[in-house]
Amino acid sequence: MTRRTLAGLGLVAALLPLHALAQSWPAKPIRWVVAYPAGGGSDFLARQLSPQLSKQLGQTIVIDNRPGAAGIIGTDNAAKSPPDGYTIVTGDNGAMVFHEAMYKKIPYAPSDLAPVGFMARFPLILAVNPDAGFSSGRQLLDALKQNPGKYSYASPGIGSPHHLGMELLKDRTQSFVVHVPYRGTALAIQDVISGQVPMMVLDTAAGLPQIRAGKVKALVVMSRKRIPSLPDVPTLDELGVKDFEVTAWQGLFVPKGTPADIVGRLTAEMNKAISTPEVKARLEDFGLEVLPGDGPALATFIQKETTFWHALIKERKLSAEQ
């Protein structure tokens, strides 16, 4: 038997366990890592989708909230998990794009995670405390530009889409607003409701219940078009900030090396779950835009996002390390 033949047999032997794993998957509960606290947009989406996905796969899906360090702790945990299909993770703008540029070093590389596909994106809203003295988006933008440093805004954390969305707005309008980062949306929105901070950037999943209850007031959306859940709230484009669009997108990922058969099955099942009429209607009621898709499309999108945002972060000298 030749050395080449022996090497070939060794490769086949190495691949057999992965093939067998893919054939029997899923044979036990699946862990869905959410790298943010309960109550935020990422947690909301995972908890809305997991029951339907669990039903389709015939296995329990356990949501594992692992917040900390703007999502780095949970994302790193998932990236270093066995690539066996039993760990999936929500990846977003922060984890997959911003953090590489915002930190000198992070413990994982975005390439350590393989994209399964898009799930949805959350429109972002610039909202204020009702007693903060702002009656319209136009008035708010004028006040921010005319009074540099006078006002502050809250975000769920440094390096979040909410933070970078506001930084892009500041860049486009040549204004200055003080950033007050929090550890998650729930804490930030409570301080806006109480008047400790006059405004914040909210995603629709976390923001719409508070807006509908009158606890905060939506003045402008950061989407390219008005969103159906807030039809009377103008876009930044309408207020003169042209070609402005920032959303908090969410994709599903697995550790690199997960068998392709499992990734393909996850893509198909997630697209089916997110397109189920009941699930889709519930997500859209909270202002989410459902975005079924596959891994290659998500990978291409991330490349474009990385080029754009890394340039902005470098230009504005933004850093998560003070």
Task: Describe what you observe in this structure.
The chain is α/β, with parallel strands linked by helices and 322 residues long. 45% of the residues lie in helices and 19% in strands. It is built from 11 helices and 10 strands. Strands 1, 2, 3, 4, 5, 6, 7, 8, 9 and 10 form a 10-stranded mixed beta sheet that branches. Helix 2 (41-57) packs across helix 9 and helix 4 runs parallel beside helix 11 (295-315). It is globular and about 60 Å long.
Describe, in short, the structure shown.
The protein has helices at 3-24, 41-57, 72-79, 93-102, 137-146, 161-173, 185-194, 204-212, 260-275, 277-285, 295-315, and strands at 30-34, 61-65, 87-92, 113-128, 152-155, 178-181, 199-203, 217-221, 247-255, 289-290. It is an alpha/beta fold.
Q: Any descriptors?
A:
alpha/beta; 19% strand; 322 residues
Helix and strand arrangement:
Elements: H1 3-24, E1 30-34, H2 41-57, E2 61-65, H3 72-79, E3 87-92, H4 93-102, E4 113-128, H5 137-146, E5 152-155, H6 161-173, E6 178-181, H7 185-194, E7 199-203, H8 204-212, E8 217-221, E9 247-255, H9 260-275, H10 277-285, E10 289-290, H11 295-315
Parallel strand pairs: 1-2, 1-3, 5-6, 5-7
Antiparallel strand pairs: 3-9, 4-7, 4-8, 4-9, 4-10
Helix pairs in contact: 2-9, 4-11
